[in-house]
Design brief:
Layout: E1 3-7, H1 22-28, E2 34-38, H2 48-61, E3 65-68, H3 75-81, E4 84-87, H4 92-101, H5 105-113, E5 118-121, H6 123-126, E6 155-157, H7 174-182, E7 189-191, E8 197-201, E9 204-208, E10 213-216, E11 223-225
Parallel strand pairs: 1-5, 2-3, 2-4, 4-5, 6-7
Antiparallel strand pairs: 1-8, 7-10, 8-9, 10-11
Length: 237
């Protein structure tokens, strides 16, 4: 039974790391003493050690012990034996390349399917979709495949931004980029705004947070989904 928290971001503007998710994280990992942290996404190019220490500083103040996956000689074994797993944000291409390089895609998928509690933020949430095609990140590393874990029946676009009618920016909006994706792919895309997350319990997928999310499906107008919406019972063909 899947047991996931799938967040758009780790940090809200003006807030501290994971602060807006504190109650959710503590409840989610309530039966875990130790959390395995996956630092592969390396936001801003920081090292695995630096990233793990950032997470350790926060989560250990909440009563958890944090171990970085890079600290293990056998990362596949670490995943299988983990009480809880957290994959942080950063660059999705770098993250997915590392998961494929260490042959961790299938073992991570199997571990999550059996119910090990998992927290993802940003890139760590992107990998739960059908593919990483709808990430906002630059392709700075080459992954052998775009396919990800498929824990969700759709793709995500974390940090989703609505078009600003007052902006003079002439580049493409997120909505435009997602329409480009749908010119080639049928997979639905959920735009998660900052401060929103999904709670996944088995096949139930519930939108959480104060904001709505924006759902894009090929050939259809996008629709707003209010917080509390159940997505697991939709037809995702």
């Amino acid at each position: 039974m899947k047991n996931l928290v799938v967040a758009s971001t780790s940090t809200l503007h003006g807030g501290s790391y994971l602060a807006y998710l504190k109650d959710t994280v503590q409840e989610h990992f309530r039966n875990c003493k130790t959390i395995l942290f996956v630092p592969y996404a390396r936001p801003g190019g920081i090292s695995h050690d630096e990233y793990t220490q950032k997470v350790r500083t926060t989560l250990e103040s909440w009563g958890f012990v944090v171990q970085g996956m890079h600290e293990f000689e056998d990362p596949a074994k670490a995943i299988k034996e983990a009480e809880g797993i957290f994959t942080g944000g950063g660059n999705t291409f770098v993250l997915v390349k590392q998961l494929y390089q260490h042959k961790l895609i299938e073992v991570l998928k199997a571990t999550l399917e059996k119910g090990t509690p998992y927290l993802g933020t940003s890139a760590g949430s992107n990998i739960l979709g059908q593919s990483m095609h709808t990430t906002n990140d630059m392709p700075i590393a080459y992954s052998p495949d775009f396919a990800t874990l498929g824990m969700l029946p759709f793709n995500l676009n974390p940090h989703y931004l609505d078009p600003d009618v007052h902006s003079k920016h002439m580049g493409e909006t997120r909505e435009t980029r997602i329409k480009e994706f749908h010119a080639f792919h049928k997979t639905a895309v959920l735009g998660l705004r900052e401060g929103s997350w999904l709670e996944v319990k088995g096949e139930a997928i519930t939108l959480k947070g104060d904001l709505s999310a924006r759902l894009f499906e090929q050939g259809k107008d996008p629709v707003e989904l209010e917080s509390g919406t159940e997505l697991g019972d939709r037809n995702w063909t």
